[in-house]
Design goal:
The chain is of the alpha+beta class. Helix content is about 15%, strand content about 40%. The chain has one domain: Thiol Ester Dehydrase, Chain A, CATH 3.10.129.10. Strands 1-3-4-5-2 form a five-stranded antiparallel sheet. A hairpin with a 3-residue loop joins strand 3 and strand 4. The protein is elongated and about 50 Å long. It starts with 9 loop residues before the first strand and ends in a 12-residue tail after the last strand. Bound molecules: coenzyme A (COA). The site of coenzyme A has 13 residues, from strand 2 and strand 5. Keywords: Hydrolase.
């Protein structure tokens, strides 16, 4: 379990975990959490690339705590590296339980590094102008 007090990076997206996104345990499906992370990270990468990006790699994916229906899911991201055509973003997901009486304190549930590649109109890698 993480003793990290605050998320790394900026808040990129905020949404509520819904019943349609549960797994067989009744918790939120990891694939849905990953899609939130990919989307959030891509918003940051779009700004850096000044255009379209494609996800080329995900590493160090870690799910540390389950996400429950009704949790507020916050996706944070920090720019780690800008290469010739690639952008690496550290993405963290934090939740804030708001539907339970003891709710209030946020905590980290997942983190990963996402690598995006700036692409042109043909989907080919494009040099990032900074
Ligand atoms: C993204 C894509 C256009 C890149 O094309 P490519 O021919 O693999 O690109 P390159 O080999 O020239 O690499 C481009 C950059 O990505 C980096 N890269 C490629 N594969 C990588 C990997 N597995 N991990 C980390 N970085 C990687 C390269 O180091 C390079 O970075 P740099 O230019 O900053 O030095 C192509 O792989 C693609 O279309 N992938 C599918 C994208 C997609 O649909 N994603 C959604 C599915 S989840």
């Amino acid at each position: 379990m993480s003793d990290q007090a605050d998320p790394r990076g900026d808040l990129l997206m905020r949404t509520m975990a819904m019943p349609a996104d549960t797994n067989a345990n009744g918790d939120i499906f990891g694939g849905w959490i990953m899609s939130q992370m990919d989307l959030g990270g891509s918003l940051l990468a779009n700004e850096v690339a000044l255009g379209r990006v494609g996800t080329v790699a995900v590493s160090e994916m870690n799910f540390s705590r389950p996400v429950k229906v009704g949790d507020v899911v916050c996706t944070h991201g920090e720019l780690l590296k800008v290469g010739r055509t690639s952008i690496t973003v550290q993405v963290e997901v934090w939740v804030k339980p708001i539907l339970t009486p003891e709710g209030g304190m946020r905590y980290k549930v997942a983190q990963a590094q996402f690598v995006y590649v700036a692409i042109d109109e043909h989907g080919r890698p494009r040099v990032i102008n900074r």
